Amino acid sequence: MELTNYVFDNFKKFMTPAREKQLTLLFNSFHPGDEWEKLLAWLVKDGNSLPAENPIQQIAEELVSARRGKSLYEQVWDAFRYLLNEAERRGYYSKGLTVDFHGKLSQALSNYPLLRMASFNHSRVDEQNWREAVLEYIGFVDDQRRKAKHELATAAIAAGEGSEAIQ
């Protein structure tokens, strides 16, 4: 049996959705800037997190998870990418479960308009204060959004629209 046929025949077993997600950053590089990198990494440290349902917190956790696998594959990425491209060209594989972190972060930031204007020009001394202010702002916006959603649901129930409004 030819080696390439064996490799390509076993590609689907090797390229599981979990492994593909782990390789996301090799498929789609993500460099939002040093300050965002630091903030996202800081959010996954003990005691620094936003609520679990917060989209920025979810991106931070997903990004850290994806980055765990990056160094594992960096040394062989060129050869592996060749195999991936060849497997895709021959119809043995097609990309599916990679993550567009730029798109996800952009979408999440659309909920927090002031963060798009946030100044990253601060000294190391101010870094902790800046992070705390960002978290406070995100928490404030999330609280306001929850209150508005609750008020809409309460008004809909009072108007007799039932539980459909709550969803």
3D architecture notes:
This protein is mainly α and 167 residues long. It has 2 domains: 3-110, no CATH class; 120-167, no CATH class. The protein is built from 10 helices and no strands. Helix 6 runs antiparallel to helix 8 (101-109). It starts with a helix and ends in a 9-residue tail after the last helix.
Topology of this protein?
Layout: H1 3-9, H2 11-14, H3 17-22, H4 24-27, H5 34-43, H6 55-74, H7 77-89, H8 101-109, H9 113-116, H10 124-158
Helix pairs in contact: 6-8
Shape: elongated
**Helix content estimate:** 55-70%
**Helix and strand run:** HHHHHHHHHH
Average per-residue pLDDT, rounded, comes to 78
Beta-strand residue percentage: under 5%
Cα end-to-end separation: 56 Å
Please state the structural category: mainly alpha
What is the rounded Rg? 21 Å
Tally of separate domains: 2
Largest sheet: none
What is the helix tally? 10
Number of strands: 0
